[in-house]
Specification:
Shape: globular
Distance between the termini: 30 Å
Helix content: 25-40%
Order of helices and strands: EEHHEHEEHHEHEE
Number of helices: 6
Length: 199
């Protein structure tokens, strides 16, 4: 009698999510809140990477194994993906862009990186000043994770995106049964690898 066993469903490929390399933007510029808003829109968001950076070999290896390479539409993310996966076609998607950093209209002059802390704290508490809110960014993060999971059905995935938005995707991955098996932190060029353990 032939032993017939049910087929074991194949697991999806891994998902690696990386932060971009160092952008060419002066984070120590002294600014008031209006100056920071202009800096965010016109210096930081369109910034390329600082020249001469090399993607970590281990991250490049993730891309070698990947079937799909995603990047946000922002230049620093696209250039990161190009460095991580040279000569590969990229899926460039605005859903992976960084969450907004609208500064609170407070008095004083501070470094751009200090305004970034102020802005993230007040944004997290609900002050979006007409820009994408925390709630809307979380909805976008859920949608972005769905896109990554669908792509992982066809093989491993690498996504080059942004520090805070990458954090926002984590709980949605976890809720869908994905486990972080390699945590590289949150610095430039850092990356985390997730594998599906839901079944």
């Amino acid at each position: 009698m032939t032993d017939i066993r049910p087929a074991t469903p194949s697991r999806p490929g891994f998902i690696t999510i990386a932060r971009h390399g160092q952008p060419l933007a002066n984070r120590e510029a002294m600014l008031d809140w209006r100056g920071y808003e202009d800096w965010w829109d016109n210096e930081y968001q369109p910034a390329p990477l600082v020249a001469g950076q090399v993607a970590p070999e281990a991250l490049q290896q993730q891309a070698v194994e990947a079937s799909t390479i995603f990047a946000s539409t922002l230049r620093r993310a696209v250039e990161t993906a190009q460095a991580v996966a040279p000569n590969r076609d990229l899926v460039i998607d605005k859903d992976f862009i960084e969450a907004e950093l609208p500064p609170p209209p407070w008095p004083g002059r501070f470094m751009a990186k200090t305004w970034g802390v102020f802005a993230r704290c007040t944004w997290w508490l609900g002050q979006s000043r007409g820009r994408e809110s925390r709630v809307d960014a979380d909805i976008r993060a859920a949608r972005a994770v769905e896109r990554l999971i669908r792509a992982a059905d066809d093989g491993p995935v690498v996504c080059c995106a942004h520090g805070w938005f990458n954090r926002m995707m984590r709980p949605h991955l976890k809720a869908a049964g994905w486990v972080c098996v390699r945590d590289g932190g949150d610095s430039y060029w850092s990356w985390r690898r997730y594998e599906y353990r839901g079944d």
